[in-house]
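Morning!

This is the sequence you dropped in the shared folder:
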Amino acid sequence: MGSPVVTDDLVMLDITDPALDPNGPEIRAARAAHWCARTPMGLAVLRHDKLTMLLGDRRLVQGSHRILTAQGLTTGPLVEWMNTMILSMEGDDHLRVRRLVSRAFTPRAVTALRPRMREIAHELVDGFPVGGGGTVEFMAAFADPFPARVICELLGVPPDLQETVRGWANDLGLAFSYTAAANLERIEAALAGVFAATDRLLAARRAAPADDLLSALLAAEADGDRLSPDELRSIVASLLFAGQDTTRHQLGLALALFLRHPDQWALLAARPELAGAAVEEVVRVAPTTPVTGRVAVEDLEVDGVLIPAGTHLTMLLAAGNCDPALFVDPYGFDITQSRPAPLTFGAGLHYCLGASLARAEMAEALPILARRLGPIAPGGGARWRPAFGITGPVTLPLRCGPPR
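The structure's back. Tokens below.
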């Protein structure tokens, strides 16, 4: 082995800069130069092979919550929630809770909900306020309500509470960005609302179980073990947030991507059987979670780079998804291609529990939108969340014909 790489010689990437594109020219140049780069917080991992290896490395622990520490947030309700989420758990605690949640949140439950996903998608498109050449704000008309209704129906949230829960979920999404400190009051108000609503819903299900995920979580058992009240509250709050905010932005990113590739939009309308491949290509090229975090719990060396214990690693999933060492035409968008699985949902022990739900929702929604809306075009200026964190459009006006 050669001499260790001096990290001071690596490219510096300021991941706290809102102008930095997670897969822009600076990232591409840094990836071409080396598998990692320096950041104000530690190191960034840029290449697919190293991302895959390190995401599964037990010498690293989940570190996404460090995004709060970097902003000076070390105490309070938001920090407590982030530190107790299943996303942040490690070791035996993580395995235990994940096993119990998996007994309730099953692929079978997701599959059973697919017909309802289609119904909701059609209902929302029926209500589009457009005529020939009219404009619709896609996020408000579809991307916001669609995943919110799906996760609320899956959990058993009553209709009169769903709109309020949707607003809370959108605000909680700001916690996973470098704007969390600036929006702390808004985020913690949403968290308090979600916790209070979760407590009421769980109490109702304890008194009268139903055929929904809440009842299944309450009943989940393994070797005589059950989820505690605090664990249930944290998990349900996380599901309400993650089941809405990430999918809403991924849908927005999908439509923004198809706007730039109208030939692929027309192909999806003509061949709805390509829906699954379209979802994989969307989350590869335009992931709503372009980064995640890990922290080294012991000293390690990777290809000559010394990584001391305590080092924060920013895992640039977006860069790995378009690594030219693995992908042919890495920045192309082709829904007919069969490619390696994207890293967007993570890897290893922290692979996203909701990946099957997100994939199913998008696979049901996108072909319905393509077929019923026909050709689409930008309908005005979109507004966007910061690129690092959970990203995507806040507003996305579309110009399209009358729904079919």
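Headline: The chain has a mean pLDDT of 88.

More detail when I'm at my desk.
O.
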